[in-house]
């Protein structure tokens, strides 16, 4: 802080707070604190953050700053506070909140959408309160932010609440600095705020003046399927305790097996469905309210078809007033013993973006939903629910999807740099923009395989540039020449750089951990276009973030994917290819019989044709994919011969583990190859021998997991020593497997290495854009020098 100027012991200080400081009750907090300490001055939102000018006696100013740092509003997050002495103002009286100041370039973090706070809930369920059961209740400590905001500074005219003039009662709250709704931009009540409509697929009113939520709850309890407009888009919903309703929703949505999330009214209901520890409770009751993957309890009463492949259930609690009221009404209508749980899955057909608007919902979801709950507050930014799992061994959660509640909070980078755009991958796409030493990763966008998703992607790119007020100076894309994101990067008119997919994984994990320098990286996933034109996915890389360089040190020994993409959809093809590479080319072991391939009953004719493809290499590309290795072993064990969603075979394999089984399969490192190779042939041969000898799928799965972890950790230890580093980044979709994530991290640590895992983005391809952007900043720094 610079030197003070004063007269008669009075000093004035100018303080600028950067971070998540707009739309979170920050200015009224400063006002109340200044009045409490007898200070005069002013506070306003400005491009650089929240600007405070504070005048008073030195000890009072010091006391203000001390309280400021320790008593911030619940949603506020200050990342930088600059304080400087300025000339006092004579004759100033009182403290004022001034109008927001527009301008170019700013250092404000936009608040994510936040779950309903206890104060608002208490009002909503108070029959004497004017907001009793009002489904759009909020205040400065909760409610919509990112999904309703067009621009910064965050003020009502730049939100979707601009078309709802405040009534007198709401305006008094909005203008009173001592009220918790002071400048709460979404503030509303039944008289002046958004309203609900319940309609059929033809748009006909079904409420007829009644309570739409009460009527909808009855329809859901009767087995109907609803499209419900929420915070960041529509959900498709049905009674999670009804097998009939859940199966019908799956048929209509074309989602036969992929797990469905459920919403329950409260923590007590969540405990009936799954194991809730202290960390899970914090997520279920906190301000983010993601879908939390809980270990499922037997006899909970959920339909078996909610999550048929896994022993976990995705559970969330209400995060909007609308959800709170609906779940309460639904619970009232259920017979005793039925779980008050509603399926809440993304409102879309598989592979399309989540539906946003009322007319769009009636058009796109008419073949899925029987009834539509609409409202007239526009959603400006599509945002899915976030998904995570708590791993007690890690300080941070294992993220599967980062979206509502997390976005647009930044990832803080190890070094500042120029504004770079990471355009992301093809599947599980996100995009990332950097600003100084912060990276803003978008919400989950989806698979870039149709025009609807491309348009959604462009919306988010435009939106983030607008609210961050940045323009990238270069873009980084994947090496795959046919990705939509690659084409888009080259159409932006910026300098572009390509970065190999698995190197991007590595840069992302290292950036999250604020690491600079040389590190090893284990990048383990299903598919990534390699620098040699083959399909990579089981890689050990050496990364130098300072030089923006990487080297492929080792890989899984390649095997073929007979049928190309068909092998991804039908893991038995990969299984047979792995056997072929291991020298096992007929059913049984080395032609001796005793073990029939599990897929022959269903895929016998195709199986007999496969040797020609493998022998001649026709439509059978090489891969080093760890994800495909999981698929193949799952098929070998008879767990999954064909899939209906990505990762299904691996999920079944992880679930099948018998943790009482001893032993592991070999995965030796061949250092004579260039790059070095982990020889999967020995592992596959051991799997086949075990199965021939009558080993159960559970024992095979456990030995496979243990052998894979041991082989990777041993290889990492050897290569790290050769490379002069002790740091190892772990990334890729395989790290969504909790067994691999936990046991591989421990195995590396046991060998004296420091593992870096993801905690702020998913290890799957949702982190790719972050890695690309971090690499782009490093490239730009090197070009400058």
In short:
It is built from 22 helices and 31 strands. The protein has 785 residues and is of the alpha/beta class. It starts with 5 loop residues before the first strand and ends with a helix.
So what's the overall shape?
A: globular
* Number of continuous helical runs: 22
Intertermini distance: 32 Å
* Biggest β-sheet description: 10 strands, mixed
Poorly predicted regions are none
- Spatially, the strands of the biggest sheet line up as 8-15-9-10-14-11-13-12-16-17
- Secondary structure category: alpha/beta
Q: Give the helix proportion (percent range).
A: 25-40%
Q: Please count the beta strands (DSSP E, at least 2 residues each).
A: 31
> Strand percentage, roughly?
15-25%
> What would you call the quaternary organization?
single chain
Rg, nearest Å: 28 Å
Could you report the average pLDDT, rounded to the nearest whole number? 94
List keywords for this structure.
785 residues; alpha/beta; ten-stranded mixed beta sheet; seven-stranded mixed beta sheet; 22 helices; 31 strands; 21% strand; globular
Could you give the topology of this structure?
Blueprint: E1 6-7, E2 10-22, H1 26-36, E3 40-46, E4 49-57, H2 58-70, E5 77-86, E6 95-97, E7 108-110, H3 118-124, H4 168-175, E8 196-200, H5 212-221, E9 226-229, E10 234-239, H6 243-253, E11 262-263, H7 267-273, H8 278-285, E12 291-295, E13 312-316, H9 321-332, E14 342-346, H10 358-364, E15 371-375, E16 387-389, E17 398-401, E18 411-417, E19 420-422, E20 432-441, H11 451-468, E21 474-478, H12 484-490, E22 496-499, H13 501-512, E23 518-529, E24 535-544, E25 549-556, E26 559-560, H14 565-569, H15 571-581, H16 600-616, E27 622-623, H17 626-636, H18 648-655, E28 669-670, E29 676-678, H19 680-692, H20 697-723, E30 727-731, H21 738-750, E31 754-756, H22 768-784
Parallel strand pairs: 2-7, 3-6, 9-15, 11-13, 12-16, 19-21, 21-22, 23-30, 25-29, 30-31
Antiparallel strand pairs: 1-2, 2-4, 2-5, 3-4, 8-15, 9-10, 10-14, 11-14, 12-13, 16-17, 18-20, 19-20, 23-24, 24-25, 26-27, 28-29
Helix pairs in contact: 5-9, 13-22, 15-16, 15-17, 17-18, 19-20, 20-21
């Amino acid at each position: 802080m610079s030197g003070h100027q004063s007269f008669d012991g009075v000093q004035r200080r100018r303080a600028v707070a950067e971070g998540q400081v707009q739309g979170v009750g920050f200015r009224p907090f400063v006002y109340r604190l200044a009045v409490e300490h007898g200070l005069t001055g002013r506070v306003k939102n400005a491009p650089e953050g929240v600007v405070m000018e504070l005048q008073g006696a030195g000890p009072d100013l010091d006391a203000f700053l001390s309280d400021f740092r320790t008593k911030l509003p619940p949603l506020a997050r200050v990342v930088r506070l600059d304080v400087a002495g300025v000339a006092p103002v004579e004759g100033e009286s009182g403290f004022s909140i001034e109008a927001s100041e527009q301008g170019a370039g700013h250092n404000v973090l936009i608040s994510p959408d936040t779950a309903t706070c206890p104060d608002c809930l208490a009002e909503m369920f108070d029959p004497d309160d004017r907001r009793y059961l009002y489904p759009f209740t909020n205040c400065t400590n909760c409610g919509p932010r990112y999904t309703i905001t067009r621009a910064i500074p965050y003020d009502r005219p730049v939100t979707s609440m601009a078309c709802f003039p405040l009534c007198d009662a709401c305006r008094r709250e909005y203008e009173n600095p001592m009220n918790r709704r002071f400048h709460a931009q979404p503030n509303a009540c039944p008289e002046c705020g958004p309203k609900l409509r319940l309609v059929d697929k033809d748009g006909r009113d079904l409420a007829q003046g009644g309570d739409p939520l009460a009527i909808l709850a009855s329809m859901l309890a009767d087995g109907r399927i609803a499209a419900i407009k929420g915070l960041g888009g529509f959900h498709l919903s049905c009674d999670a305790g009804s097998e009939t309703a859940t199966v019908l929703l799956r048929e209509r949505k074309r989602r036969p097996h992929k797990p469905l999330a459920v919403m329950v009214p409260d923590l007590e209901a969540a405990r009936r469905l799954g194991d809730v520890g202290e960390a899970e409770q914090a997520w279920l009751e906190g301000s983010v309210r993601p879908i939390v993957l809980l270990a499922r309890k037997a006899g909970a009463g959920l339909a078996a078809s909610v999550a048929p492949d896994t022993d976990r259930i995705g559970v969330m609690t209400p995060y909007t007033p609308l959800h709170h009221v609906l779940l309460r009404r639904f619970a009232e209508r259920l017979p005793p013993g039925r779980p008050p749980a509603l399926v809440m899955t993304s409102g879309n057909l598989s592979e399309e973006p989540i539906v946003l608007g009322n007319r769009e919902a009636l058009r796109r979801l008419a073949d899925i939903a029987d009834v539509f709950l609409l409202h007239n507050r526009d959603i400006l930014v599509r945002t899915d629910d976030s998904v995570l799992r708590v791993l007690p061994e890690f300080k941070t959660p294992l993220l599967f999807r980062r979206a509502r509640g997390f976005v647009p909070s930044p990832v803080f980078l190890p070094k500042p740099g120029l504004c770079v755009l990471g355009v992301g991958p093809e599947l599980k796409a996100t995009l990332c923009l950097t600003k100084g030493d912060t990276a803003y990763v978008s919400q989950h966008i989806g698979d870039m395989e149709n025009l609807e998703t491309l348009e959604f992607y462009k919306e988010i790119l435009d939106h983030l540039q607008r609210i961050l007020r940045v323009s990238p100076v270069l873009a980084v894309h994947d090496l795959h020449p046919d990705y939509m994101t690659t084409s888009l990067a080259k159409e932006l008119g910026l300098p572009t750089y390509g970065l190999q997919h698995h190197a991007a994984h590595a840069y992302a994990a290292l950036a999250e951990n604020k690491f600079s320098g040389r590190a090893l990286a284990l990048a383990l996933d299903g598919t990534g276009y390699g620098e040699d034109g083959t399909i990579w996915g089981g890689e050990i890389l050496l990364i130098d973030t300072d030089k923006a360089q990487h080297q492929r040190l080792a890989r899984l020994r390649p095997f073929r994917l007979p049928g190309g993409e068909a092998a991804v959809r039908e893991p038995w093809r990969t299984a047979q290819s792995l056997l072929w590479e291991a020298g096992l080319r007929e059913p049984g072991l080395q032609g001796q019989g005793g073990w029939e391939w599990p897929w022959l009953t269903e895929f016998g004719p195709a199986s007999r044709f496969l040797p020609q493809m493998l022998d001649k290499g026709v439509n059978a590309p090489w891969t080093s994919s760890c994800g495909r290795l999981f698929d193949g072993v799952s098929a070998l064990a008879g767990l999954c011969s064909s899939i209906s969603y990505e990762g299904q075979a691996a999920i079944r394999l992880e679930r099948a583990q018998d943790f009482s089984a001893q032993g592991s399969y070999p995965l030796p490192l061949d250092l004579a190859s260039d790059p070095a190779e982990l020889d999967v042939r020995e592992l596959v041969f051991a799997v086949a021998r075990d199965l021939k000898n009558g080993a159960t799928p559970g024992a095979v799965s456990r030995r496979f997991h243990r052998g894979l972890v041991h082989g990777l950790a041993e290889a990492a230890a050897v290569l790290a020593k050769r490379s002069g580093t002790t740091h190892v980044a772990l990334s890729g979709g395989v790290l969504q497997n909790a067994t691999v994530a936990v046991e591989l991290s421990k195995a590396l640590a046991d060998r004296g290495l420091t593992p870096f895992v993801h905690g702020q983005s998913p290890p799957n391809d949702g982190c790719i854009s972050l890695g690309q952007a971090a690499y782009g900043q490093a490239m730009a720094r090197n070009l400058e020098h």
